[in-house]
């Protein structure tokens, strides 16, 4: 494959084929830098050399009734993950200061749930109103499970900018990961988010035993949904989950190829390196910034991660700069 020719086509407004996307994932290590260069040319056109940072806050932990096999907050997980009910408006608003202090573009408020209860929804909405009043330039993303159109409109009207609801994997492999709801349930929520005018953050998790074709199928499913942001997670098996002890087939180069493939498939979309990056990419983390233009900082929902100071140094050492709020 001539990756420059393919990237030229994408830069000119064309598309990559499914066969070419699969070829990226199957490409040999001695072509990796060419693949990354092709992805970087696309990334540079739409996002320059900036990296947007996002800070997560887990507002309800360890109480999810769903059985996602990778999740330490799942009903099927047996572990000592901290469990607490929905946090107060005041604590959620206070948490926004941590995002501002770390030059985060977005404050991501996440709840372990199937769908938000009415009181939980109102808590998020009231918190969003107060956060926007206090930090008008800070964008708010919420992740609250399955949505109805009415609830999505309520979130948007309160000042929430974006809603996260990952597809996680391909439709073909979904039942191997989740059985308490269907792939189509997630697609329907994603469509509702777009319909009401919220930005859609929707990605997946690689390394769960899915095939390379499943990864390609996920990327094209995301493209079909016209997503605005794609968080790419890499499996870091959590104790007590169904996937605990599962051999992770991903090597650092596999992660880089996956990120590059997503960039080629969805060129104008924000691509974020998310959970598991530290343990799977290891010393190659900086190279992930060539296809990706976004990342979470200062940890995840139930696990730690690199500190903001470490991430800032990594970004700057690689020749990129943090995207600052207006």
From TrEMBL:
Binding site for [2Fe-2S] cluster: 108, 141, 201, 272
Signal peptide feature range: none
Radical SAM core domain mapped to chain residues: 49-277
Record protein name field: Biotin synthase
Ligand binding ([4Fe-4S] cluster): 64, 68, 71
Organism: Pontiella desulfatans
HAMAP family: BioB (MF_01694)
Keyword annotations from UniProtKB, A to Z: 2Fe-2S, 4Fe-4S, Biotin biosynthesis, Iron, Iron-sulfur, Metal-binding, S-adenosyl-L-methionine, Transferase
One annotated GO molecular function: biotin synthase activity
Reaction(s) the record says it catalyses: (4R,5S)-dethiobiotin + (sulfur carrier)-SH + 2 reduced [2Fe-2S]-[ferredoxin] + 2 S-adenosyl-L-methionine = (sulfur carrier)-H + biotin + 2 5'-deoxyadenosine + 2 L-methionine + 2 oxidized [2Fe-2S]-[ferredoxin]
SUPFAM superfamilies associated with the record: Radical SAM enzymes (SSF102114)
């Amino acid at each position: 494959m001539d990756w420059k020719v393919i990237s030229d086509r994408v830069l000119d407004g064309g598309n990559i084929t499914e066969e070419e996307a699969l070829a990226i994932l199957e490409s040999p290590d001695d072509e990796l830098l060419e693949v990354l260069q092709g992805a970087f040319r696309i990334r540079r056109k739409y996002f320059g050399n900036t990296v947007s940072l996002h800070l997560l806050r887990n507002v309800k932990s360890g109480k999810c009734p769903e059985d996602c096999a990778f999740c330490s907050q799942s009903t099927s997980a047996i572990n000592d993950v901290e469990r607490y009910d929905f946090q107060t408006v005041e604590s959620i608003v206070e948490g926004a200061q941590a995002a501002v202090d770390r030059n985060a573009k977005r404050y991501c408020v996440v709840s372990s749930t199937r769908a938000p209860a009415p009181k939980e929804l109102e808590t998020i909405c009231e918190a969003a109103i107060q956060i926007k009043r206090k930090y008008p330039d800070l964008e708010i993303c919420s992740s609250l499970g399955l949505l109805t159109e009415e609830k999505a409109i309520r979130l948007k009207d309160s000042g929430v900018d974006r809603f996260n609801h990952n597809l996680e994997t391909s439709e073909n492999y979904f039942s191997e990961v989740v059985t308490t709801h269907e792939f189509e349930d997630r697609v329907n929520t994603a469509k509702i988010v777009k319909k009401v005018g919220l930005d859609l953050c929707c990605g997946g998790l690689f390394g769960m035993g899915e095939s390379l074709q499943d990864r390609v199928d996920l990327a094209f499913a995301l493209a079909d949904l016209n997503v605005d942001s794609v968080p790419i997670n890499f499996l870091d098996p959590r104790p007590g989950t169904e996937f605990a002890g599962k051999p992770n087939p991903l090597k650092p180069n596999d992660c880089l190829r996956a990120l590059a493939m997503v960039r080629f498939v969805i060129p104008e979309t924000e691509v974020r390196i998310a959970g598991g990056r530290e343990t799977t990419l290891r010393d190659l983390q900086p190279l992930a910034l060539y296809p990706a233009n976004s990342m979470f900082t200062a940890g995840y929902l139930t696990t730690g991660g690199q500190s903001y100071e470490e991430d800032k140094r990594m970004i700057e050492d690689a020749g990129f700069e943090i995207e600052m709020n207006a």
